[in-house]
Structure formats: structure tokens, C-alpha cells
Design a protein that fits this description.
It comes from Nonomuraea salmonea. By secondary structure, this protein is α+β, with helices and mostly antiparallel strands.
Length: about 110
């Protein structure tokens, strides 16, 4: 089952600074096991463009469109047997302690 894992910063990171996981080791392990299909950091939210259409009119908003301290900073596309495995993969990601991770399964259309 495929999962999109949104990597987000967080205004309340873990205060325990011991034994922080290494992102390069996490990537290497999950790539080798075939669980991480793709992933990348994203440009800062100031580079974002929001696209909407209202009443037939294109509306573009540049940069941050909300006042928020928590933003998506990257993503990983995961292939896992089930949600339990996806949670285990997310649990070991460094941003599980520094930020937060949101897992969403892909819909079967």
C-alpha cells in the first residue's frame, strides 16, 4: 500500500536531544528495504503559489497564505504492507522528534 508522508515542522519539537536519528541513515535504510519510493525537501513556503478558481476566475496567491508556524517542508512516498509498517517507518524518521509526520494512504480510484 502506498502512503504519502508529509514532513512538517512543528512549533513544539521534542526537548530530548539525545540519540537524534540521522536523516541520511534513515533514507539509506528505507531505500534499501524498498519502503521509500521517493522523497524530497521542499523550497520554503515563501516560494509557494496557491491556485484557486472562483466563479471562473483564476486566483493566485504568492508566498505564505496563512499565518502558521507549522508548514510542510518535505515529503516521502512510502510503499508499506499496511498502516502499522508505515507508522514504524515514520516513527524512526528524524522529523518525528523535530517536527511531525502525516501519513495518508493513496485512494484506490
Amino acid at each position: 500500500m502506498k502512503y504519502m508522508m508529509f514532513v512538517c515542522n512543528d512549533s513544539q519539537p521534542d526537548t530530548d536531544r539525545e540519540n537524534l536519528p540521522d536523516i541520511e541513515a534513515w533514507v539509506a535504510e528505507n531505500d534499501a528495504r524498498g519502503r521509500r519510493l521517493q522523497g524530497s525537501a521542499l523550497a520554503p513556503e515563501s516560494a509557494a503559489t496557491t491556485v484557486r478558481v472562483r466563479d471562473g476566475e483564476l486566483i493566485l496567491t504568492d508566498g505564505p497564505f496563512t499565518e502558521t508556524k507549522e508548514v510542510i517542508v518535505g515529503f516521502d512516498l512510502l510503499e508499506c504492507a499496511d498502516l502499522d509498517e508505515a507508522i514504524e517507518v515514520a516513527r524512526t524518521h528524524p522529523m518525528a522528534r523535530e517536527g511531525r509526520l502525516e501519513l495518508r494512504p493513496f485512494m484506490d480510484l
